[in-house]
Fold this sequence. Notes:
The structure holds 2 protein chains of 2 kinds. Chain A contains 16 helices and 18 strands. Chain A is α+β, with helices and mostly antiparallel strands. Chain A has 2 domains: 14-109, NADH:ubiquinone oxidoreductase Nqo5 subunit (Beta Polymerase, domain 2, 2-Layer Sandwich); 188-503, Cytochrome-c3 Hydrogenase, chain B (Orthogonal Bundle), CATH 1.10.645.10. In chain A, the strands form 6 sheets. A 5-stranded mixed beta sheet of chain A has the order 1-3-6-5-4. A 4-stranded mixed beta sheet of chain A has the order 2-16-17-18. In chain A, strands 11-12-13 form a 3-stranded antiparallel beta sheet. In chain A, β17 and β18 (460-466) form a beta hairpin. Chain A is globular and about 60 Å long. Chain B is globular, with a radius of gyration of 17 Å. Chain B has a single domain (43-168), classed as Rossmann fold (3-Layer(aba) Sandwich). Chain B contains 7 helices and 5 strands. Chain B is 36% helix and 14% strand. The longest helix of chain B is centred in the last third of the chain and has 13 residues, at 156-168. Chain B has a 5-stranded parallel beta sheet with strand order 2-1-3-4-5, with helices on both faces. Classes of the chains: A alpha+beta, B alpha/beta. At the A-B interface, α4, α5, α8, α9 and α16 of A face α1, β1, α4 and α5 of B.
Amino acid sequence: MSALGDLLGKRQRISAHRPWPRAVVDAEGWDSAAFLAADGRCTLLGLWGEKDAVHMALAVQDPLEIAILSLPCPDGAFPSVGRHHPPAIRLERAIRDLFGLTPQGAVDARPWLDHGRWGKRRPLGEAQADAGAGEPYAFLPVEGESLHQIPVGPVHAGIIEPGHFRFTANGETVVRLEERLGYVHKGIEGLMAGAEIAHAAKLAGRVSGDSTVAYAVAFAQALEAALEIAPPRRAQWLRALMIELERLANHLGDIGAICNDASFAIMLTHCGILRERVLRASDAAFGHRLMRDRVVPGGVAVDLSNTGIDAIRALLREIRARFPTLVQLYDRTTSLQDRTVATGHLSATLARQFGAGGFVGRASGRAFDARQLPAPLPYGELGFEIATRTDGDVNARVWVRIDEVTQSLKLIEQILERLPGGNTHIALPSVSEEREGMAIIEGFRGDILVWLRVGADGRVRRCHLRDPSWFQWPLLEAVIEGNIVADFPLCNKSFNCSYSGHDL
Amino acid sequence: MNKLMLQSLVLPPVTEPAPTPDQAALAELAANVDAAARRKLGRSLSIREVDAGSCNGCELEIHALNNAFYDLERFGLRFVASPRHADVLLVTGPLSANMREALERTWRATPDPKWVVAIGDCAVDGGLFAGSYACVGGISAAVPVDLHIRGCPPSPTQLLKGLLALLKS
């Protein structure tokens, strides 16, 4: 039995939790779980709170095992996980800001999402009015000779999301980057609590616009797990199709944008054309360029017509005709390679420790991909390979994207060829008691985790959405160290973390 | 690269003809925009984009305006890196409380005369995020808005129609 199984073995299980087990632990069990994550026997998938409890999702790989551990917090405190396992630090700071639960022994007591601007403290816990007009943030001290600081943001120079980067540099070399996020915190989890399913599903689709499909699928699948229903096969295949179209659009956009950050604009132009073609084909097939609100609990909101199939087939032909030339151009331009090779190196150890998902983890040898998880999505019936590299630099992250474009084309082709017939939606049943469900979906950026509890009245009680960026943002701070300031845009774009998905 | 360059020279551009300006946008602008300010700015506008809590959907479509199909710059509209260079602030999102001060400071840093264009459904009144403790709910709660372009997100064509109305009002 695995370490995780051992931990679960003797604990009280929550019966209404699907598809993975959830067990209640005491402080000692909670600490043991933190140690499992700290010594690498488990990967921390998520850590979230509610009014009077904290939850931790853990995974063991080979064979894959997932479990959720919960610790009741009657005294408003829980033993810090972050003091043993750094990836948990920001998650704990967010729990304290939102719910007022204190991580005991935490190494970083500063607020994270709460900038003192909400008019209240602990908005999702025992809320307390607070007229604070924003207080200065205590950035980490930096000591040394000839250091200067470069503050950037929250409003950036490009058309991107807001966040603050505090660089400390020695000449051109970055010695420390500290991120401050939370600027786009919208209180989505607060809005979800008590919301009707249809409304909550729309909110889930607006957590991170570039991953609207992946989030909508994650929410729907968590809910369907809780209600123990299975949407029609055709709906599952169409969901996978939309997820792969979304992945294509984002990867194509990113490959171009990374090259553009090295002033190699021709790649941006040509990748931009291909990206636009994906969005237009998605619009033709599903009626929306980003396919927003097209995945709904119980199935999908629109069926795919023959015209839609033709549009996607034409798209596949065009990308297959044009993309290889662009890849060759990337690969053969030494001045571009000079910027991407060996830049922003992420070690395999850090990628593993943080459970880095998506191309960030896979470019540093962490071969996890949530598409390998068992059904309901049809990936188990489709042939595809998981792209991995071990170099861990900007170049490796570009190549993982390039390989994933090829794999997505392959997947889309198979889905179109073998798309099952039948209905695309089933009605949601009513239930007589509270139910809980969880889902992990591989969006373009990595694994998105959604955990929810739905009440007998058909409303969401609590829903937590964990973006892959939570475990990628801290790594960006690590990879920029020792690089020159001018390479930050390349490193940043090669990660392309979500601000909105992280800030919620 | 040479082959790609050569093809770019020989093949026709993918850029599409301009759509007609949005009538509703023209009406909103007629009420909001001072004719004198318009004359001063002429037919070329510099745009600074500010994300005030968006889900990043609007940013994706604003980005698309720069691709070869829409080619925003042919209309004299271009994105600039600083509000100090801008005539227009293009603002997205329901205005998160944490971004309010940054938006106000960006607005103050933009020289007069200036216009504010609010992009997306949630920029109107908070949209789906209205009522959240963390959202102010609509861009006009913090800075005066001259034009709203709705949509979730608005497509590049809708964005282009609204921005062309700004040039032609």
